[in-house]
Amino acid sequence: MTKNLISIVDDDESIRRTTTFLIESFGFRAAAFESAEGFLKSVQLHDTSCLLVDVQMLGMSGLQLQRELAVAGHGIPIIFITAYDNKDTRQQAMQAGAVAFLGKPFSDEELLQSVRLALQGEFVATKNLISVIDDDESIRRTTTLLIESFGFRAAAFASAESFLKSSQLHDTSCLILDVRMPNMDGLELQSELAAAGYDIPIVFITAYDDRGSRGRAMQAGAVAFLDKPFSDEQLLQTVRSALWQDNSSRKST
């Protein structure tokens, strides 16, 4: 049984109750608060290892609580949960250092994975560079904007060759990679990176899914193989998974 305390701040009593039960079912300790003000005055403030906080609440909002904690020097990893997701709020939260931004209702696995990320202690969204390689300019532009709205840094490339020659190659924490491209394709780049000793988590994206390509990509260690068009949430969850696996592998070496 882990000793980490996960605090939940939400003005909806049913959400507090079900989330507390879920957190305890994962093996963590849990404390629940109906307001940001109540959490700030509590003794649990100093013991909290991870904070689940609603965005919209009566009194102080989740974003205001995030700022208050930062000003006071409390470096508590924060996971936002909300029924009213929008890109501006998400970007504001992630750029301020939130670990995740989950839309209600979220799955048990989504929450557990986000809590694990928070407890890694090394996950800071704004420090992770996500590189996007796609020969379609519109896909590069929209995917880069989406990645930045999550609070990550992003770099875009029109070809595998240009990525291999770039200075961002060594800084990339996760690679979003098209399968079919002129000259070197995504699968060839995956092989090239492996041969050169680069262990970058790869998320493949494609408009032409086929079992052969999917099987080769996944067997060679890809994190995911997403069909275009994919949802914002699909991409965010996949990037989180890639970064969590990357952090885990670094800790084990």
Strand order of the largest sheet: 2-1-3-4-5
Q: Can you name the CATH architecture of the largest domain?
A: 3-Layer(aba) Sandwich
- Under CATH, the homologous superfamily of the largest domain reads Response regulator
State the order of secondary-structure elements, H for helix, E for strand: EHEHEHEHEHEHEHEHEHEH
pLDDT averaged residue by residue: 88
CATH fold title of the largest domain: Rossmann fold
Q: CA-to-CA gap between the ends?
A: 25 Å
- What is the CATH top level name of the largest domain? Alpha Beta
Strand content: 15-25%
Shape: elongated
Helix coverage percent of residues?
A: 40-55%
* Number of spatially distinct domains: 2
What's the total number of strands? 10
Main pleated-sheet profile: 5 strands, parallel
* Contiguous uncertain segments of 5+ residues: 122-126
Global Rg: 19 Å
Enumerate how many helices there are, as a single number.
Answer: 10
Structural class: alpha/beta
